[in-house]
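for the writeup, i need someone to sanity check this before i put it in the appendix. the sequnce is what the collaborator sent (i think, or maybe the updated version? ugh). structure was predicted straight from it, no edits. if anything looks off just tell me and ill rerun, i have time this weekend
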Amino acid sequence: MIRFNCDYSEGAHPLILEKLAQTNLEQLPGYGADPYCVQAEQLIKDLCHAPEAAVHFISGGTQTNLTVLAALLRPYQSVISPDTGHINVHETGAIEMTGHHIVALPHQDGKITADQVAQVCKNHWQDENPEFSPQPKVVYISFPTEFGTLYSKEELFALRRVCDEHNLFLFMDGARLGYGLSAPGNDVSWTDIATCCDAFYIGGTKLGALLGEAVVLTNPKLQKDFRYIMKQRGAILAKGRVLGIQFLTLLQDGLYKKLGAHANKVALLIRDACKQAGLKFLYDSPTNQQFLIMPNDVLKKLEQTYVFSHIRPYGKNETVIRICTSWASHEEDAKQLIADIKQLLGK
């Protein structure tokens, strides 16, 4: 079977495996104090033009979201998120389990706006008893969104302004950050993200690493005691070298964005061909996730060879599927999928 259902089906980029093997027998300090983690931290600061930032490495995305939000929120505070946000729909209530409320706002192509955030704050503070409901404190967004769409630089800075106006933190989930940064038409840079966000992370798990996310804390208020919170949530890896080596490899010489650009290229090849064949998409995504509306009879035959993610039924005879490419997707597989779709559609 050829898998187009997610971007972490493969193991790791060969350069990462090579570097891990080369350094395997080195005796190094644990818990992220090794020289590779230190070098990777400095490289990230340089990329973001954020010399005062703090960088920490955590094994996975859900644990990262849980740990960062624990640092951002007091027990009585809430996080504002798109209703489709990963923390709201794909993390088994991890945030609610810690006692924090998620204010889930209606999304537009996976995004929320500064005006929506301002309205939440207005509603809270104009209540005659604001202390009777959770106090909004964090805005959570993803880049790219769960639908592969992107915030523009203008939208990102608008969110920053509203956060400043209402004393909120802005936290960006960057599990697929490399796909967003390398997408055609993207106008958001490393520096823009570091400037706008109090905290964000650089995803490795879904972009060439065996595992791992790099958390960047740009707001000094969040840096103190963050490792205590990490340890309490099991987020400090004893063999921290495994994470440092991977991010050092990914971020040197532009490999991270090259891998993202490759996945986007393969996804857009499929998207453009499907559009030419008369198929429609639920969202206009420039990244590696494409949400295709597929006739059920065609889908059934395709699934003899390919694996897709089913999103939801679309009317009686169609289904929205997600076609998700990765840093390791083969262009030949995409071309074969295109040929098979066209044949089944009689194009």
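The chain is about 40% helix and 20% strand. The radius of gyration is 21 Å.
thx in advance!!
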